What does this fold into?
Amino acid sequence: MGGYTLIENAPLVARNTLRVAARARLLAEVRDATKLPELLDFPAVRGDPLLVLGEGSNLLLTGDFDGTVIAMATRGVQVEQDGEVAHIAVAAGERWDDFVRWTLGQGFAGLENLILIPGTVGAAPIQNIGAYGTEVAEFIQSVEAWDINERRVVSLDNAACAFAYRNSLFKREPGRYIVTAVRFALPRAHALRLDYAGIREELARMGVDKPAPFHVAEAVVHLRTRKLPDPAVIGNAGSFFKNPVVDAALGDSLKRGHPELVAWPGGDSRWKLSAAWLIEAAGFKGCRDGDAGISNRHALVLVNHGHASGAELWTLAQKVIAGVEAKFGVRLEPEPVVV
Ligand code: EPU
It folds into this structure.
């Protein structure tokens, strides 16, 4: 039986970047995506709750998982067509940051603002990862997945994936699809995205006046390293809260009451508010309950200082949500998948 390995009562602590010491009743590490149907038909797996994992960098496990965890460990990058725009098919288990660096080395543009995001390529479309003014959806041509309901391989084009801010079809229908590969369309050249928070200043500091994509990537590496805690050093899942979008009336009244509030136009005359600002203003930045905390470097980041359980982390997150709602009347939503 090749293509996957099954482990019973498997520890997950090394498989989630919040370093929660949860366990899974069964863990299947998948190295060959064509074996998924066979695996899902396995008597111990059929009908079980499923949780699909890449690097576990966007996940809070609030307890043990009484089902099967599928860890995608498939590899492979294939350039299918290389012209002005390259078409590249990438296996779900490839590390996102390795792939971004590879594209830059090949002279493909587009993903430079998305360097250093933890996680796998297969996880990227699920929450439509984004940073510094770019979302991955702009460069995804299609996503290949195993459709658990229909028991067949599907290829979903960009429109079918229904991408939105930190959202997609895959997040809206949890448990239906297992992403097996992502097809990207990457240009050889494009207009660089330099207008977001601090990129131009960082390029100036680097002494670069005619930036290439790899310069922008380096600037983003500097910015992220300065601002965001490194999951290799302290357990975290990046932004734990989404930036909330509120209607014009609430946004305007909050801005009148708090002129320093950070907000961006959110489309349809709505406002997207900085959740980090709201959390900091509500007094939670750097707070700590046992080993569960809010980073003192960035208020959006929930951190595990050592041995916090998933339940303790979730309790603190809910305290933050309640505190911000009491002070500003805005309800924050978690950004990672909470299981
Ligand atoms: N701010 C504070 N307190 C803080 C941190 C930030 O008040 O502790 C304010 C600052 O005024 C800053 C503003 O919040 O101007 C925005 O901060 P930042 O530029 O760090 O961006 P963000 O909106 O907080 C988003 C993404 C990040 C992404 C950055 C950079 C979400 C939920 N988060 O954060 O994504 O790296 O922009 O593009 O959209 C992630 O999704 O895991 C993630 C890290």
Remarks:
- The chain has three domains: 4-72, 77-187, 235-338.
- The longest helix spans residues 310-328.
- Helices lie at 36-40, 96-105, 169-172, 199-205, 213-227, 248-257, 275-281, 310-328.
